[in-house]
Every structure is written in C-alpha cells, then in structure tokens.
Write a structure and sequence with these properties.
Largest sheet: 7 strands, mixed
CATH class of the largest domain: Alpha Beta
Strand content: 25-35%
Number of helices: 6
Radius of gyration: 17 Å
Bound molecules: biotinyl-5-AMP
Order of helices and strands: EHEEHHEEEEHHHEEEEE
Distance between the termini: 41 Å
CATH architecture of the largest domain: 2-Layer Sandwich
Length: about 240
C-alpha cells in the first residue's frame, strides 16, 4: 500500500477532512494526520478527547470487499494498532469488541470506521484511529481518567509519533491486504485471542442490556453472546456497545 500523508494542525475531526478529500477524488491510501481535534468523535454520536500530543489520524480506503469483510474493518484496524503497540513497546495490548485497544484494562486507542455507499456499493471507507500518546491523564476530561491510559503514563516517556504512525500503517496495510486475499477469518481468530473469550459481558443494544457469556466473533465480526436461556445472539458493532459494570 502506498501511503500519502496530509499533515494538519488543528482540525474539527480528521474524519471530516478525509471524507472531503475522498469526495474530491483522492486515492486510496491518503492519510490525514492532525495535531489536535476540536470535535473528535467516536461511534453512536459520542465524542473523542483529542489533546495535543496524541496520534489522531484517518485513512482513506476504497475497499472492494464483500459486505462480511467490510464489516470486519473496525476489528482489523484495532488489531493493527494492538500489533504495533506490542511490537514497538512490548506492551500487552488487548482488544475490546468492537473497536477499542486496551492496555491493562484501560482504553489507549479507539477506532471509528465510516463508509459512504451508492446503493449497496461502497464508494469509500474512512478508518479513524486515535492513540493516547504523549500527554498525561490530566489532559483528559475527569470522567475518562479512570478508564483511559496514555503511552506517556505507561512508559514513563514520550514516543516518536512518526515511528508509531508508520508502524500502525504498516500493520494496517498488511491486514488490509490479508482481508482482500480472503484471509479475514485468520484475522478474526487473532483478534479473538486478544479479546479473552469466553468471558462474562453485558451488551447495550436497541434500548436493552443483555448479559451473558461472550463466546467469540461471527464471520462478519459480530459479537456472539450466550444468554442465560442458552440462546446465542449476534450483536453488530453498528448498533451495540459493551456496558461497563
Ligand atoms: C471510539 O469510539 O473509540 C472511536 C474513537 C476514534 C477516534 C479517532 S481520532 C482520529 C479520528 N477522528 C475522529 O474524530 N475520530 C477518529 P467509541 O467506542 O464510541 O468510544 C467513545 C468513548 O470513549 C467516549 O464516549 C468516552 O467515554 C471515551 N473516550 C473519549 N475520548 C477518549 C480518549 N482520548 N481516550 C480514552 N477514552 C476516550
């Protein structure tokens, strides 16, 4: 994959800039990196705190993938980040379905995938990745401090953001290629190992909370939860979220 990096200072969200560039015809592999975001966002209308010192970027893809493979993209992108954090810093990075990278149970990175369609055809996907890197927990809103973690806090020093970006892009490129070659199942099995199944979990979806045992991932990346009555229900990342105790 050939990456073309666009570097910006303060932006609203790199998702918006990447989408504008996609609509203007920029090629797959365009990467928008910002120093700071004023309106960083997560899934389902949630916000993403993006102070200076973090690695905030969005990658433009024009995926020619079957729908079941397209829906694996958020998991595959968080797998790429976990691989990079393990390789560069030896950190025990784990995944939390569908799109979080945790270290010692605290969120270090979030992934957001937004796609544009024409009918059922995907025109483009934007993969947004945010890694809490060179800032302390005091740069985050108070309510996040107990659940989030940053590289500076964990390692005791700052990291080279360029090196981190390159490592994540290199893993993402390898995972994306594997997905296109029909090896998405192998990537899901690797992601499952980093998610620690089976384990008790509660999922919020469609106005209800479902508690049960998370068993693993379905072929499209949905979470399989065994409910107390023994039935197994699949939850799609587009509508479900893990409920913290
Ligand atoms: C995510 O959403 O985790 C996806 C975050 C994606 C951020 C990247 S940065 C580059 C690109 N540009 C953007 O505007 N977004 C992408 P979600 O699973 O919905 O989690 C959001 C929740 O995480 C929030 O409601 C907070 O509870 C928590 N949160 C917010 N900022 C955080 C931070 N910096 N570190 C850890 N947790 C945070």
């Amino acid at each position: 994959m050939r990456w073309r990096i666009v570097r910006l200072g303060e932006v609203s969200s790199t998702m918006d800039i990447a989408r504008e560039l996609a609509e203007a015809g920029r090629p797959e592999g365009t990467v928008v990196v910002a120093r700071r975001q004023t309106r960083g966002r997560g899934r389902l209308g949630r916000g993403w705190a993006s102070p200076e010192g973090g690695l905030w970027f969005s990658v433009l893809l024009r995926p020619r993938l079957a729908p079941a493979d397209l829906s694996k993209l958020p998991i595959v992108a968080s797998l790429a980040v976990a691989r990079a954090l393990r390789r560069l810093y030896g950190l025990p990075a784990e995944l939390e379905w569908p799109n979080d990278v945790l270290v010692r149970g605290r969120k270090m990175c979030g992934v957001l995938v937004e796609s544009a369609f024409s009918g059922r055809e995907v025109l483009f996907s934007v993969v947004g990745i945010g890694v809490n890197a060179n800032f302390g927990l005091d740069a985050l809103p108070g309510e996040l401090r107990g659940r989030a973690i940053t590289l500076r806090e964990l390692l005791g020093h700052d990291v080279d953001l360029e090196e981190l970006l390159n490592a994540i892009l290199s893993e993402l490129g390898a995972c994306y290629l594997a997905l296109r070659e029909g090896k998405g199942g192998e990537l899901l099995r690797e992601a499952e190992r980093l998610m620690g199944f089976p384990r008790p979990l509660s999922v919020a979806c469609c106005g209800h909370v479902f508690s049960g045992t998370a068993l693993g991932l379905a072929e499209d990346g949905s979470l399989l939860l065994r409910l107390p009555d023994g039935a197994v229900r699949a939850f799609s990342w587009a509508e479900a979220t893990i409920k913290k105790p």
